[in-house]
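Repro:
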Amino acid sequence: MGRLLKRHNIILLTVILTNLVLTRSILVVAHPLPINEYWQKVEETQALVQSLGSASPETRRNKLDAAADGWEAITSALLSDGTTVPLDHSFIAARMRADPPDLDQLNTLLTNLLESRDTWPQREVAPADMQALDRILARPEFQWPPKQPSPLEEWWQELQRRFLEFIANLVPAEVLPVLAPLLSYALPGLGALALILVLAYAMRSLLADFVVDKETDAENGREKDLTAAAALKRAQALSAGGDYRTAVRYLYLSTLLLLEERGLLRYDRSMTNREYLRSLAHKPELAAIFRDVTEIFDRAWYGYRQLDEKAYTWYADRVKELQRQQ
């Protein structure tokens, strides 16, 4: 029962971390880039593209991949009037990651982008135009309920907000916009690392449980029609050969069979140790010793705790003490 609960917990934690890593929209830290810095970045990127004409393919690949990462991290721009404009640079990033990259095409895209800056409308929108736009946007076809975040998204966003507040208290305000793109990749990276560690632990635990199950099946095949005395004899033979772990199992089995022979409990392979303990609730002294014997057995057999001769001798003495109880 305990192993089953452990498996469920591992699976649940793995699912949560997988959702956090794969749900990219949750993980992006959205900090609008001031518009003047945005155009400066366009100019810097164009200068980079123009400088790669004579570079080696490997150099082109590394620098363009890094530039594409930077552009994907920019999800909005902050205009001079305080308006935030959402941006999507997936097309430019895809062209940068093309293999091989078309430098002429990239240069043309960035040139067109800079030309749009030069023709940026400077006049204010007339009030009548804004009123007409408001009437259009008020039509039913433009109305839809905002998407409600899932509990997982709300939890992650709150965790992310607290993390950014913590970082903001550690660094100067002017440095935070520079760190924002890095943090947008650091958080998913930490989530991915945690997922890998959990998966590794889950695989290790599941493989260990599989080995234990196979060993248990093999031992169960030898336990048919086994008596308490026969199990005790088997434990003595195993301990003499240095196999203390399996010897502990047979000592524990000998205890269960002996208690069944005395009518104190019913031995059933489907029963849990907790159920065996409840069967002895009417004999507190016996139950206390049996609890110690059970805990050592669980650690040795299911937890792969190594036992030496001294530890095994102590365990065998506790079993003898329990078997002397009436």
